[in-house]
Amino acid sequence: MLVLAALGWLIAAAAMTAVWAWQRHVRDAGIAAAVWPALVGMLAVLDANLGDGEWVRRSAIAWMMGSWGARLAVQRIYTRAAHGRDEHEGGRPFWFSQALAGAAVLASMPALLASLNHDPNLSAFELAACALWLVGFAGETTADRQRLRFTSNPANEGLRCRAGLWRYLPHAGRIFEAAIWVAYAIFGMTAVWSRYV
Q: N or C: which end of the chain has fewer CB within 10 A?
């Protein structure tokens, strides 16, 4: 486990160092917002592939975290292309990029924990976590598309999105994102529970 965590840290530190250098070159600190979820997803997929746990469990967490990271990275790139740069045009300090690297390693920890679990059967908690993730992923994807459609209309400039899911849940994106992370926590902690209890 420590070897996989150390490897993840080295990859994350190198990736975020490259992002820091690039954002200083192009003077655009928003690049890290797109790279970070992709890095979390990539570390989760790497952990799932290098772990020696049960294949079904490793595949499930790799698909969940990998698809979340890819979707969010693409969505952030698209949003930035449509709406422009953020307020931190000049870039952020190097230590901030390394803090993001450490956060990526911590965020991918559920995949590392799950990838070491040798139990051949998924538990009811893991299946419930998968179902919760599916609801969160579908909800967040839908909410992001609805908000992007709303904000792309010049007539809605400066207005708060109240279309679709946003009509019923003013913080739809955050609610569904929280559901995704609760699902990861349940999945990872179930692996620890079944291994040590």
A: C
